[in-house]
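Researcher: Next sequence.
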Amino acid sequence: MSHSSEAEIFKVIKSVSYPNNKSKHLFQMSKVLYNDFGGEVPQEIDDLQKLPGVGRKTANVIASVLFNKPVIAVDTHVFRVAKRLGLSSAKDVLGVELDLTANIPQEKRATAHHWLILHGRYTCKARNPQCNTCGLRPYCKFYSEQQAI
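Model: Next structure:
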């Protein structure tokens, strides 16, 4: 890919969301990977975040999935579910990540991450949470607070 043009990359990924930004980032990323990392994807989160278009969440996903690192990527679903269940009272993504990391054993983090995402997508939805069918209702801070209203 380091020998491809941005336009060539765009043609390959044009069906994904935000192809203009992503083709630009992938083009720049391929140069950084080739020049700074010998063509290898770095394993450390700090190094991953040096890649164009890679923030903390993406770096954590790569570290977890590619390199089996015991990290948790906090997206909107993980953030919402962690807050509603009372797993974190942090006000920002990094705080939620730190709380979850401190309280979920290393060997369970990858699985917990996926469970939190799926629960947030299909049950604990942002606008219309399905509390009546949720098996976590007895443990849920959000549900308890809603019942008190």
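Model: Residues 6 and 63 are 26 Å apart (CA to CA). The radius of gyration is 19 Å.
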